[in-house]
Every structure is written in C-alpha cells, then in structure tokens.
C-alpha cells in the first residue's frame, strides 16, 4: 500500500517519469523546483516553481494519496492552502477548488512511478527483519553509511541536549551543578538512574564539597538521604552514619526530601551494580576529585578520564558488603571497571561537552566530545549485535551511538525514506527524468 511519505519522497527527488507531463485537466507541466519539504503545519512543500500551460507559478505544493483527502483533512477551511499551485496525488478521485472557486491543477503519479521502485519500497517498509534494509546493506556505499551515522549521532547528542539544558536551567545556570547531577544519574546506570538523579538534586554539590575531607560524613549524607540507613541497625558503622546523617540533615534541612528505600532497585542487578555500591563509589569520587565536575571541561583524551576514574575505590566497609548488614565472602575488587568508565564517557562526559560547546559557541568542546567517543570501544547490546549481523562496521562508540539512534528513530519507526541509507537503496532504481 502506497503511503503519503512515499509520495513526498518521489516528489522531492522527482523519481517519476516526466515524459509528456500534464495535469489531469490536460495542461502541460514543467517543474523548475519541487519546493522545500515543510515539517510544520501547512502545505507539504513550500517555495516551489512550476509552469502550468503558459503560466509560471511560485507557491506551495500539497501531496495526497487521493485528491479527496483535501476535504477529509479540512484544507478547504484553511486559508493557508489557497496558495497551493499544484496538487500532487497518487490518484485524482475528486478535483478540488480554492475559496474563489478556481480549480487547483492536479498531477496524478500512479502511472508514472516504476513498478520496480514500488516493489523495492514495499520490500523495505514491509520487511519482517528488525533492520528493514539489512538485506541491502552490503550493496550500500560506505559514504552513505558514514554520512547517515554522523547525522544521527548529532541528532542523538542534540536530543540529549534538551535534558542537560533542562538540568542547567533548574540549577540556575550552574554548569558545575549540572555536571554533578548528570554524572549522578549515570552512576545509577539504567535501573537506578532516576532515584540517583533525585538524590543529587536533593543534596546540592555545595553541601557535599563542605565535607569532602571527611568521607564518612559524605557517606552519611548520601546514604541517609537515599533512605538506605536503618535507625535500629546493630552495626556500629551504620549507627554512626545514621547519627551523623540526623545531625547534618537537620543542619541543611534535608529530611523533607529524603528518598525511601523502596525507590531503589536491587533485583536482577549484579551485586557490583547495587545502588549501595554505586553510592559508595560516588562518595569516593567526590572525596578524591572534588573538582571533577569542572575538570570535565579539561579532559582531552580517554586516557585522562580513565586515569582519574580508575582511582575510585570504596571504603573498607563496602569491601566486605554489598548491602547494609550482610557481609559477603565473595567480594571482588570494587571500583569502576573499564566498561563503567566508558559508559560514563558515553552518557555523561561527551554529551556534557557537546552541550557546553554548543551553548557557548565554542566548537573546541564539541570536537572534544566527538574525539572521546571515537576513541573508546562500541557498546555491547542487542542493537549493536543486529547491526553487526547485518554487515555494518561499528568500531567505536561514535559509531555505536549513531547506530543506536538510527535503529530507534528510523528502523523501529520504518522511517526508511528519511534515512540516507534507505533512500540510497531506492536511488538504484531511479527513473530517468525526461
């Protein structure tokens, strides 16, 4: 079944036979410029230039499968459509008129688009594979693949920019506090990202920095505010933390925004990723590198980041526990492993540098963000496995981030006609323009 976005595609690229081109009323048509696709309200293409009969026209183009959709979409009640100079349809089943009763010229395309192009389009959008074009990928040039990957990577970074800029506004335009909250969210990784972010928002960085010389006080503040300390614990370590938190919570008016233990997820998580361990690691980061949130702007290599974050080590209690009160005999070294550090670069440091550079119009930070992603390993997940199975080369995080965005925003939505890879597949069967 032909869809309207397919008509947009063939009109934009003029993928139809133009021999003896004429309106359904029999007037000759010559197309100088098909117009610019309009993604906002109003006619589909703007600023088009065509000659119909002996008259040259400049204005808008509206595209429909059937011309009767003009009335179904209530265009006849919208004055913005009075300057449509050509109605492009698959079939003209109901000629339409402007408010002044003048007939809008109509171009019918169903007999002018090659069957091979329609079949190729149908094979992609109706494909059962998770990546619709997987059967064609090997035939696509590297230029098209790389170009699309770069485009969607920027789209992904821009999409993340909205979240980071929202944090920035909520922190009264404080970049250091923004970086702190963003990194805290990352320390929660996927399942505990939201409560970790709320924890950071409820405990401003400036409070923690006042106690950076005393890791026990940092643990008391963060574990207490997270709602993970039990008042009646039998362990002296926990009793000390609880007493310290009670004092500091009153001093800084923290109790009213305290999280509850039920907000944190422990099930189906490896013990090394328990929120208790991640909070202990976050405490170490603040204690060892109190200027880390400003140092982000100085990182120019992956090596620098790894050297900084690899120093993180939990306190003695957490070298023997994964949760409060439960001593473990199967303890592994606790600290940020290479995968976790690279995850932080991908999801916090690089996006932060990108946003900071864009907001301040300092491209050095944007380039640095790209450089960091280009020099670490690609993520390992289902989406990346699908792309590799389809023959796509993914050698670094710059490419894997693009591949994830391409899959989520284009493949899942079958938005193949807006994808340079999908469009290039159809270009192989482009009809000659007469």
Q: What does this protein look like?
A:
By secondary structure, this protein is an alpha/beta fold. Among the domains are: 4-113, no CATH class; 196-346, no CATH class. The protein is built from 17 helices and 8 strands. Strands 1, 2, 3, 4, 5 and 6 form a 6-stranded mixed β-sheet that branches. A two-stranded antiparallel ribbon has the order 7-8. A hairpin with a 7-residue loop joins β2 (36-37) and β3. The model is unreliable at 429-434 (pLDDT under 50).
The biggest sheet, with number of strands, parallel, antiparallel or mixed sense and barrel status, is: 6 strands, mixed
Helical region count?
A: 17
Estimated helix fraction: 40-55%
Order of helices and strands: HEEEEHEEHHHHHHHHHHEEHHHHH
What share of residues are in beta strands? 5-15%
Query: Which regions have little confidence, pLDDT < 50, spanning 5+ residues?
Result: 429-434
**Strand-pairing-aware structural class:** alpha/beta
Q: Name the average pLDDT.
A: 92
Number of strands: 8
CA distance, first residue to last residue: 27 Å
Rg over CA atoms: 29 Å
What is the approximate shape? Answer: elongated
């Amino acid at each position: 079944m032909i869809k309207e976005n397919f008509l947009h595609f063939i009109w934009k690229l003029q993928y139809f036979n133009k021999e003896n081109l004429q309106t359904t009323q029999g007037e000759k048509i010559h197309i100088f410029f098909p117009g610019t696709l309009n993604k906002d309200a109003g006619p589909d293409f703007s600023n088009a230039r065509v000659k119909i009969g002996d008259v040259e026209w400049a204005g808008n183009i509206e595209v429909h499968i059937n011309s009767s959709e003009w009335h179904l979409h209530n265009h006849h009640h919208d004055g913005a459509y009075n300057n449509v100079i050509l109605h492009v349809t698959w079939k003209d089943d109901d000629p339409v008129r402007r408010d002044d009763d003048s007939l809008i010229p109509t171009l019918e395309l169903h007999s002018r688009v090659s069957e091979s192009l329609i079949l190729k389009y149908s094979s992609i959008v109706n494909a059962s594979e998770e990546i619709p074009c997987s059967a064609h990928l090997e035939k696509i040039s590297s230029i098209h693949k790389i170009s699309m990957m770069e485009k969607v990577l920027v789209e992904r970074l821009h999409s993340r920019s909205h979240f980071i800029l929202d944090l920035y506004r909520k922190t009264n335009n404080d970049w250091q506090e923004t970086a702190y909250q963003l990194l805290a969210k990352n320390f929660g990784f996927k399942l505990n990202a939201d409560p970790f972010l709320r924890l950071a928002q409820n405990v401003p960085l400036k409070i923690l920095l006042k106690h950076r010389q005393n890791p026990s006080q940092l643990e008391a503040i963060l574990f207490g505010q997270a709602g993970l300390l039990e008042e009646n614990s039998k362990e002296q370590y926990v009793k000390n933390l609880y007493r310290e938190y009670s004092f500091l919570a009153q001093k800084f008016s923290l109790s009213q925004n305290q999280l509850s233990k039920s907000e944190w997820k422990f099930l189906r998580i490896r013990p090394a990723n328990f929120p208790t361990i991640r909070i202990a690691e976050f405490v170490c980061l603040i204690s060892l590198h109190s200027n880390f949130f400003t140092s982000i702007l100085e990182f120019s290599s992956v090596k620098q980041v790894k050297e900084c974050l690899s120093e993180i080590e939990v306190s003695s209690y957490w070298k023997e526990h994964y949760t409060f009160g439960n001593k473990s005999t199967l303890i592994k070294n606790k600290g940020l492993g290479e995968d976790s550090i690279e995850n932080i670069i991908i999801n916090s440091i690089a996006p932060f540098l990108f946003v900071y550079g864009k907001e301040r119009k300092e491209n050095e930070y944007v380039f640095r963000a790209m450089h960091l992603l280009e020099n670490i390993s690609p993520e390992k997940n289902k989406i990346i496995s699908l792309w590799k199975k389809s023959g796509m080369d993914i050698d670094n995080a710059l490419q894997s981030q693009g591949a994830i965005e391409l899959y989520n925003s284009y493949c899942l939505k079958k938005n193949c006609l807006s994808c340079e890879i999908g469009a290039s597949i159809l270009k192989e069967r482009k009809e000659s323009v007469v």
